[in-house]
Fold this sequence. Notes:
Chain B: It is found in: Cytoplasm; Nucleus. Chain A is an alpha+beta fold.
Amino acid sequence: MSQLNEKSIELEIPFQTSRIAEVVYDVLRVDKEPKRGGVAKVLSLTGNILTVKFSAQLTRQLRVSVNGFLEKLDLTLETVQLFGPPVSESYSHY
Amino acid sequence: MVVAIGFEGSANKLGIGIVKDGEILSNCRRTYITPPGEGFMPRETAQHHRQNILQLLKESLEKSGLRPEDIDVICYTKGPGMGAPLAMVAVVARTVAQLWNKPLLGVNHCIGHRFARVLKISNDPSPGYNIEQLAKKGNKYLQLPYCVKGMDVSFSGILTYMEERTNSLLKAGYTAEDLCFSLQETVFAMLVETTERALAHCNSDEVLIVGGVGCNIRLQEMMGQMCAERGAKLFATDERFCIDNGVMIAHTGAEMFKAGMKLPWIYSSITQRYRTDEVEAAWRDD
C-alpha cells in the first residue's frame, strides 16, 4: 500500500465558546486510535473551532473511526449541556 | 475530608457512587440484562451505558445531596474491562472533571468472571445468582476439569467440557441443578486452593471476597471453612458492595487522592488489560 491510496476526512466543529471547545478537545484527544485500526487521527484547536483530521487507506476504516468519534462528541456535548457550563477559564489540575 | 465520586462501567453494570470520608452518600446502579443464554457484547453494553449514564449521574448527585463544587476528586474505572463501555464512561468522567475543574483519577477495577451461557440460565438479576439457586437443589457431583497452575486458575476448559456434553448429560440423568452444583463445587475449590496458597505466600491472615460471585453463600462457606482451619479471618459482604458499583471506585480513588497520587491528563484513557499488580498502593504503609 502506498501513500497514494490514503484517504482523509477533515471535520470542523465550532462551539459556543472557546472554553467549551477546549473542554471537548481535552476530553477527546486522550483516546488513541486502536493500533490495528489503520487510522491516524489528529485533533487541533483554534479558538472556538475544533478540527479533526482522519486518514486511512480504506474507507471502511475511516467510517468506523469517524463514527466512533462523533458518538463520543455527542456524549461530551450532552454532558456539557446537563452539567456545565465550565466553572473555570482553564483546567487547574495536572 | 475527601469527597469522591466514582464511575464504574467495565462490564454490564453501570454504577455511580459518592463517598465522603468512607461514608456512602449515594450508590446508584443500572444493569444491562441480556436475554437468557446470551452474554453482553461490547457494542450493546456501551450503548446501554451511553443511554443511562447522564441520568444516573443526576440521580447520584441528587441522592447525595451534594453540589458538584463539594466534590474533591473524580474517579473512574481505567480497566480492566471491555473497551467500548469503559471508554464511554471515561468520556463523561473526563468531561465533568473539566467542567467542574476537579482532579481526575483512574482506578483499577479487578477481576470479573462470568458464566452460565450453556444452560441458558436467566441473566436476571445475574447468571451467577441463578446458578446459585439451582445449585442448592443439586447433589449429584460430576467431575469437571480442575485447572490450577500456581496462582492462576483457568475456567475455559470447564466451559468447553460443559458445552460438549450438556445435552448427553441431561439425558444421562444429570439435572441442570446437578450441573450447577458440580460447577460451583469445582470452581470454588479452585478459588479456595489459590486463596489458601496466597495466604501462605503473603503471610496474611485476612481474606476479603468481592465481585458478583462473592455474594455466593456457598463460596463464602467454603472460604470460611478454609480460613477457620488456618486461623484466618474472612470478610464477605452482600450484593450492594459485592457487585460492581461506583462506590468501590470512589472509595479507592479517595484513598489514592489522600495519598497524593496524581494522574497526568493525557493518561486519563482506558485500558482493557490492567493487572492488579501494576498498581502502586501508595495509600498503604504496611
